[in-house]
Design a protein that fits this description.
Layout: H1 2-12, H2 14-23, H3 28-37, H4 39-70, E1 71-72, H5 76-84, H6 91-101, H7 107-116, H8 128-153, H9 156-164, H10 169-198, H11 201-206, H12 211-220, H13 225-250, E2 267-268, H14 271-305, H15 312-345, H16 348-357, H17 359-362, H18 365-379, H19 381-386, H20 390-413, H21 417-425, H22 430-441, H23 443-459, H24 462-467, H25 475-484, H26 488-516
Parallel strand pairs: 1-2
Length: about 525
């Protein structure tokens, strides 16, 4: 398994090699110029945004997970869907929608002036606060998903033992339940932070200067690939620091459920609890799903009224789904050796494999695309001519491999070692034990990994812009082109279709959730 893990890591490290090679071409004077002119502000902005969004996602996702995992009430399945569907909306669509809605002509801008007077100024979305709110709404579902799954698998016996010792309900939650959630929460926050530091769409729409936007400006505006590689190297170091810190806090938090453990059964919600739960769900869903979907439907209707859609639109849908399914399938297969090797060995070598496999997620999409393109042109030039979507799929797998690794690693951490030992005692070989014992147990984590990669690959923009074959447009590409030209009635149908295209994947995940109850 170590050999397979190393092979996956070497493939994932291709963009890093490109970054290191181009960074070495920078002179000391150029490094000094970057440090004095750009790096301090970029570090401050990127760190501030990552920390604020992580806090925002915890405040939105953790209460939602507790409400839905620990209470049974009518419409619970609908509530879970409402908490997961925001993942289907790209961050750049969130930014574009709320930029328009907070404008004087937008829905929220007009409501603000009605409530506070025509001379009042609506909240400024072009700020740290605006970027934090936008990215928190777009990514809090990662925290919800992993916390919700961990709460469903938590051991009721431990909580009952705490109550027998005289702990109150709040003390039990604070000292027993929350510590059991640390691996899942750490994995979720790592995913959120990596998303934030590598986000391009939302920060470019909101004109909030982070490393990703600065790197894109260096490449597209100044054609300074060496300078972009230098900034990318700093971003890699910063992201690795986040990952190492996350692993440091997680390394002593490994919990195993007894083989006969009783999972916590949700209680029926009281009328008061039901009112609180649905008030919270309704308020959160209004801003993360209701208003964005209403905007999409409104502008899509305008497009249909003016014959704004043609036969090419179905081609964009087919292209997007094909790429996303390919990336999701390959990613869960590639992630398993890395997650399994790290989980079972837990050595410095396995830790290095895990960190290196996460490199693709901390690099901006354009850098990954150029790294893949450079590698293919030098090593496999025939693939560049005949590869089709192969290069794009490879870039997306590298880009979102950490999502699959984090989800599978979190599931493997809750796999009791005695289950594997029992399989070996009854004569199962290593491969048979993995196929017949381990994979069925972590099936839920693998399904979650596929869904997360599928949804993110479906929304990926910058790498697709650079690596797509000629004439191979996807939904994100069309959204970006139409939105950049202020043709809202053409951007909305593609954005709406992105949401609809994720529904089958989300249904698969919901089915796995029901099986685990």
């Amino acid at each position: 398994m170590g050999t397979l893990s190393l092979a996956m890591v070497m493939i994932a490290a291709i963009p890093l090699i490109y970054v290191l090679h181009n960074s070495l071409l920078l002179s000391a004077a150029q490094w000094a110029g970057l440090w004095t002119s750009r790096l301090p502000q970029l570090l401050t902005n990127t760190l501030s945004l990552a920390i604020c969004v992580a806090i925002g996602c915890l405040l939105l996702g953790l209460p939602s997970a507790f409400f839905l995992a620990r209470r049974r009430f009518p419409g619970k399945t609908l509530a879970v869907w409402l908490m997961v569907l925001p993942l289907a909306i790209p961050t750049y669509v969130f930014a574009h929608i709320y930029t328009w809605m907070l404008d004087n002509r937008g829905w929220l801008g007009q409501l603000w002036h009605t409530l506070f007077g025509a001379q009042s100024t609506a909240p400024n979305i072009y700020s740290l606060t605006g970027a934090t709110a936008t990215l928190s709404m777009a990514t809090f579902s990662y925290v919800f998903l992993l916390a919700y799954g961990a709460l469903q698998r938590s051991n009721q016996s431990l909580e009952e033992a705490a109550r027998m010792q005289g702990y109150s309900r709040w003390q039990t939650t604070l000292y027993v339940t929350l510590p059991m959630l640390r691996p899942a929460l750490a994995a979720a926050l790592a995913v959120v932070i990596l998303h934030v530091v590598s986000d391009f769409g939302a920060v470019s729409m909101l004109r909030f200067q982070t490393f990703t936007l600065a790197i894109y400006s260096q490449m597209s505006g100044r054609f300074d690939y060496q300078g972009a590689a230098g900034l990318s190297l700093v971003l890699v170091v910063l992201s690795l620091c986040f990952l190492i810190l996350e692993r440091f806090f997680r390394q002593r938090q490994r919990y195993y459920a007894a083989s006969a453990a009783r999972m916590v059964r949700p209680k029926t919600a009281t009328p008061g609890e039901l009112a609180i739960i649905w008030s919270w769900i309704a308020l959160l869903s209004l801003f993360t799903l209701g208003l964005p979907v209403a905007w999409m439907l409104s502008w899509t209707w305008d497009a249909l009224q003016h014959n704004g859609l043609d036969d090419r639109f179905l081609g964009y849908v087919s292209n997007s789904v094909t790429v996303a399914v390919t990336a999701g399938t390959v990613a869960i297969v590639a992630a398993f050796p890395v997650a399994f090797y790290h989980n079972r060995k837990h050595s410095l070598l396995s830790q290095s494999h895990l960190q290196l496999a996460s490199i693709g997620f901390v690099l901006p999409g354009p850098v990954i695309a150029l790294g893949i393109l450079t590698f293919i042109l030098v090593q496999i030039p025939d693939l560049y001519v005949s590869g089709g979507i192969t290069m794009l799929a490879l870039a997306l797998v590298i880009r979102f491999l950490p999502l699959a690794i984090q989800s599978q690693d979190a599931s493997l951490q809750q796999l009791t070692p005695s289950i594997e030992q029992a399989g070996r005692i009854f004569g199962a070989g290593p491969l048979s034990n993995i196929w017949r014992v381990i994979l069925p147990v972590i099936r839920g984590g693998m399904t979650t990994a596929f869904v997360l990669v599928f949804i993110d690959a479906l929304k990926e923009l910058p790498a697709t812009l650079l690596l797509r074959p000629t004439g191979f447009d996807t939904l994100p590409v069309r959204i970006w082109i139409e939105a950049s030209e202020e043709m809202l009635e053409h951007a909305a149908p593609a954005a709406l279709m992105l949401v609809l295209a994720t529904l089958p994947a989300l249904w698969i995940m919901m089915r796995e959730t029901r099986h685990r109850k």
